[in-house]
Design brief:
This protein is mainly alpha-helical and about 250 residues long. It folds into two domains: about 5-140 and about 145-175, no CATH class; about 190-250. It has helices at about 5-15, 20-35, 70-75, 85-95, 105-120, 125-135, 150-175, 195-225, 240-250; strands at about 35-45, 50-60. A two-stranded antiparallel ribbon has the order 1-2. A hairpin with a 7-residue loop joins strand 1 and strand 2 (about 50-60). It is elongated, with a radius of gyration of 36 Å. It starts with a helix and ends with a helix. Mean pLDDT is about 80; it is low at about 180-185 and about 225-230.
Length: about 250
């Protein structure tokens, strides 16, 4: 069932974690549409952060391929982003929980715009979870928790939000191409006899005009041809032919 963006967002933010939302989405696809996802994950080992796994591939078992568009719509709903106000609120929380240098108001405004735009590229629950995770800092770290760079925000969102992106991409690749109906299947009424006569007469008029144009072009071409009157010389040219060649070369 297709719901409004607001309802989809509220459902996402009511989930305990993005992983729980992913699992609920997969169960819903299977139970309502017969679309079963098989996910492939790979490890990531950054130098400055703990290792983590990210979904990089997905294969589907689909009972009825006609359900693919509905499955795509369901996954897209699960990717509903947060509002701008929600993202800015999470960034304020993140700023309050971390250490950072004092920036000017202009620089801060630019930074907020960049971070907000990045967070809104991801599902609402992923954006919120990323900010909360970054506010707590690295596991086992005893040093200060610094305000994250934009790259760190992206990496955290990618870690938790890759599942739905990969699922959507796989479904869109497997979606059947839309088939355009034949003209007779578009509900277009059969033309009447008078309409057919008008079309036939117009076609005849166009054909006659084309024949007249072609004949006029042939006559013009013949008028420009050299006369074959007169005795040809040893090269096979008549005096009229040679005169015409001289006029064209001058």
């Amino acid at each position: 069932m297709i719901v409004s963006e607001e309802i989809a967002r509220d459902w996402l933010l009511a989930q305990p974690s993005p992983q729980v939302a992913d699992e609920a989405l997969c169960r819903s696809l299977t139970s309502t549409l017969g679309v079963m996802a098989s996910l492939k994950a790979e490890g990531r080992f950054p130098n400055d952060a703990p290792a983590y796994r990210v979904v990089t591939g997905c294969e589907f078992e689909i009972a009825d391929r006609e359900n693919i568009p509905a499955a795509i719509a369901k996954v897209r709903q699960a990717m509903t982003p947060a509002t701008q106000d929600q993202c800015e609120g999470w960034l304020v929380m993140l700023q309050a929980a971390t250490a950072r240098r004092q920036d000017s108001e202009a620089t801060s405004a630019v930074a907020y715009a960049l971070y907000t735009a990045e967070l809104r590229q991801w599902p609402a629950d992923v954006a919120r979870a990323a900010c909360e995770r970054l506010a707590r800092g690295k596991t086992g770290s005893t040093g200060p928790v610094w305000f994250p760079t934009l790259a760190e925000v992206y990496r955290e969102c990618d870690r938790m939000g890759s599942t739905r992106r990969v699922m959507l991409s796989a479904l869109e690749r497997g979606a059947p191409s839309p088939q355009l109906p034949f003209p007779s299947a578009r509900g277009r009424p059969e033309p009447s006899e008078s309409e057919k006569e008008i079309v036939h007469r117009s076609a005849q008029e166009v054909a006659a005009a084309l024949r007249a144009t072609a004949e006029a072009q042939v006559r013009a071409a013949r008028a420009d041809l050299p006369s074959i009157a007169g005795k040809p010389d040893e090269t096979g040219l008549t005096p009229e032919m040679r005169e015409l060649m001289q006029r064209r070369s001058s």
